[in-house]
Amino acid sequence: MIADYAQGRVLDFGGGIGTHALGAALCPQVEQVIYYDINPINRDFVQYRSEKRGLDKKMIFALEMPT
Length: 67
Description:
- The chain has helices at residues 2-5, 19-25, 40-52, and strands at 8-13, 30-36, 59-61.
- By secondary structure, it is α/β, with parallel strands linked by helices.
- β2 (30-36), α3 and β3 form a beta-alpha-beta unit.
């Protein structure tokens, strides 16, 4: 389903363990994925997973939301 709809820039807000963010980053029509989760353990885990898959250049790990 992600491959059918995701394109351009994708925001994964409350991304948890990053399954959807990583899935979106694998789609060729997605240029960038912005991952956000308030849990720093989740954020570190997803960043690790993205690096292992070579997707870290395509992903941004937001530490805070702009106001």
